[in-house]
Design brief:
elongated; mainly alpha; 132 residues; 4 helices; 0% strand
Length: 132
């Protein structure tokens, strides 16, 4: 659950129908298009899902969609007009196709981990010249 969050769940809208069903996409869209609740503008987006161990088995994708999920579309400047159509027609929408192709070619990098490994390697090379 470390990598699943209310913003990254936006990737589910672009998943193939075999991975995320049309019915689930309809539910995701309904959750996303719900009127905003009475939260204040100072609410902070969670970077990852906060679930209890007992709730993981019953958790659905729709449970993770919040008003902050729209941030995903804004970060990548993805037009949201396709959400007004039925998911069956999304693959006919030019903006949806362009956005899906962009996301499929998106390179994901964990810079923090890579920097940490490079730092440790550099530190180790300072300590010793003999690998054994």
């Amino acid at each position: 659950m470390w990598y699943v969050g209310e913003e990254l769940i936006g990737l589910s809208f672009f998943a193939d129908d075999g991975d995320v069903s049309i019915a689930t996409k309809r539910q995701l869209t309904a959750e996303l298009l719900k009127p905003a609740s009475t939260t204040t503008s100072t609410d902070v987006s969670l970077k990852r899902a906060q679930l209890l161990q007992k709730d993981i088995q019953s958790c659905q994708l729709t449970d993770l969609v919040t008003a902050n999920t729209r941030n995903f579309f804004e970060y990548f400047e993805i037009p949201q007009d396709f959400l007004n159509n039925d998911p069956v027609k999304w693959n006919e929408d030019e903006d949806f196709i362009r956005s899906k192709n962009f996301l499929l070619n998106l390179t994901v990098v964990n810079d923090l981990a890579e920097r940490g490994v490079a730092l440790i390697e550099q530190y180790n090379s300072i300590l010793t010249k003999d690998e054994d």
